[in-house]
DNA sequence: GCAGAAAAGTGCGTGCACGCAAGTTTGCAT
DNA sequence: ATGCAAACTTGCGTGCACGCACTTTTCTGC
């Protein structure tokens, strides 16, 4: 199940990617994200600047990636892992809530960093799009791959809704963080995700019913 | 109803924007889009290169904008114009189909240009995101602005679905265009849009029912 | 009308993304 | 073992996005 297409090659690749991620985050935390050049990141990770952007298309992506990790894969796995008994909507929503609540990103200050800088917030929002394809597969699995297009649309919609939720979360926490100093009341994120995703429940349910009717197990 | 915030100022601004759009498209058609520098576009439109990207964030956006026009505004208006009797789902879906079928973009060759070049296809896909905010307003209007958040999520989902539809359309037409030469069988786009948007109908209906129950007219 | 404010356009400098064409490492099969 | 092919890295060059400070134009209140 490990994503190991080929041996040594892929290992080094992941190692480089991880080194870049770590270096980017470390430097950003040390100096503040505006005083980090991609040359610095590349040097710290021991690769050429040119190689750097074989991995990341922007400085911001590298930093954000260090915080978000491989969340998209984890979300898809979490959906697949829910017992077949629970409804599709529940499976999807709870999987997402779980993965976005984890151990609070194993780095509060990193999250704070992201929240404050506009460019990083932007990049952070963009990561929501990454769950679309893994989630498509996970949903298609549950619907029985008869109609992969429906799964795709649903996954895209869920991803869009997650984006909206995080947008709102960033909006509110940015305001309150400005006021209260350094408080990051991330406590409301799960609720925000649930309420934002709620309007999509009927669509998920309907698709599930259709699938059951077509392929009664 | 005209977006006229202030007089002469806004006019000149729109004129410049239009000049840039036109210049970008003309040059792209003349020389092929890869041989157009933004300096050329700026020069052709009579502004400095620096001014150019006060208007467009990339060369591709300028070209695509010339073809898509202000579609997002037209979609929102079309939704608002549907009689109050028709259901929300129908209003939204048909408005979108209409606006994406118009007179086939008043320029077949321009569309063909977009379809062939990867960078332009990318930019074209991104335009779907632009309908989110206007559409949010239009949907909120129909739902009675009690809960603007629901409207937002639905609009974002619809935009995502439209993106998926166009992605598929580009995919299929790119293949068939390669084979058959210059044929652009855009005929299937409306159908594609309808089937792709269909899975969202339950969500739109449910939101509408909730609104009706809360605010029986 | 006129003065001051606001906004649009401009010049310049910097950092970055990305294509291309080597060079180098890894994998695989003989 | 060894040679070949594919993948990854690298240097270099080009075009571009964007911040900043400044000029010019348009708007607003007196």
Pair with the biggest interface: A-B, 24 and 24 residues
Number of contiguous helices of chain A: 12
Give the total of domains of chain A: 2
CATH class of the largest domain in chain A: Mainly Alpha
The assigned structural class of chain A equals mainly alpha
The major sheet of chain A is characterized as: none
According to CATH, the fold-level topology of the largest domain in chain A is Tetracycline Repressor, domain 2
What order do the helices and strands of chain A follow? HHHHHHHHHHHH
Which overall shape of chain A is indicated by the principal axes computed on the Cα atoms?
A: globular
Keywords:
217 residues, DNA-binding, Tetracycline Repressor, domain 2, homodimer, mainly alpha, Arc Repressor Mutant, subunit A, 2 domains
Task: Note the topology.
The structure is a homodimer of 217-residue chains.
Chain A: H1 8-31, H2 38-45, H3 49-55, H4 59-68, H5 71-81, H6 88-99, H7 108-116, H8 118-126, H9 132-143, H10 148-180, H11 189-197, H12 201-214
Chain A binds a DNA duplex (30 and 30 nucleotides) through helix 1 and helix 3.
Please describe what this structure looks like.
- The structure is a homodimer of 217-residue chains.
- Chain A has 217 residues and is mainly alpha-helical.
- Chain A has 2 domains: 8-64, Homeodomain-like (Arc Repressor Mutant, subunit A, Orthogonal Bundle); 70-214, Tetracycline Repressor, domain 2 (Orthogonal Bundle).
- Helix content of chain A is 73%, strand content 0%.
- Chain A is built from 12 helices and no strands.
- Chain A has helices at 8-31, 38-45, 49-55, 59-68, 71-81, 88-99, 108-116, 118-126, 132-143, 148-180, 189-197, 201-214.
- In chain A, helix 4 packs across helix 8 (118-126).
- The longest helix of chain A has 33 residues, at 148-180.
- Chain A starts with 7 loop residues before the first helix and ends with a helix.
- The model of chain A is unreliable at 179-183 (pLDDT under 50).
- Chains A and B meet through helix 10, helix 11 and helix 12 of A and helix 10, helix 11 and helix 12 of B.
- Chain A binds a DNA duplex (30 and 30 nucleotides) through residues 6-9, 12-13, 16, 37-39, 47-51, 53-54, 57-59.
């Amino acid at each position: 199940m490990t994503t190991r297409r080929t041996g040594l090659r892929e290992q080094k690749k992941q190692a480089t990617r991880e080194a870049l991620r770590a270096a980017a985050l470390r430097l950003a935390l040390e100096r503040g994200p505006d005083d980090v050049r991609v040359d610095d990141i590349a040097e710290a990770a021991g690769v050429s600047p040119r190689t750097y952007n074989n991995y990341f298309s922007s400085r911001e992506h590298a930093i954000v990636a260090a915080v978000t990790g491989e969340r998209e894969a984890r979300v898809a796995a979490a959906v697949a892992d829910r017992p077949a008994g629970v409804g599709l909507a529940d499976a999807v929503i709870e999987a997402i809530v779980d993965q976005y609540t984890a151990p609070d990103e194993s780095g509060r200050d990193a999250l704070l960093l992201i929240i404050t800088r506009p460019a990083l917030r932007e990049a952070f929002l963009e990561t929501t799009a990454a769950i679309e394809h893994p989630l498509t597969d996970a949903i298609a699995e549950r619907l029985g791959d008869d109609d992969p297009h429906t799964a795709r649309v649903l996954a895209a919609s869920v991803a869009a809704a997650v984006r909206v939720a995080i947008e709102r979360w960033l909006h509110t926490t940015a305001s309150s963080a400005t006021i209260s100093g350094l408080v990051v009341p991330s406590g409301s994120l799960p609720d925000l995700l649930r309420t934002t995703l709620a309007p999509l429940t009927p669509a998920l349910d309907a698709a599930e019913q259709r699938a059951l009717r077509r392929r009664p197990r």
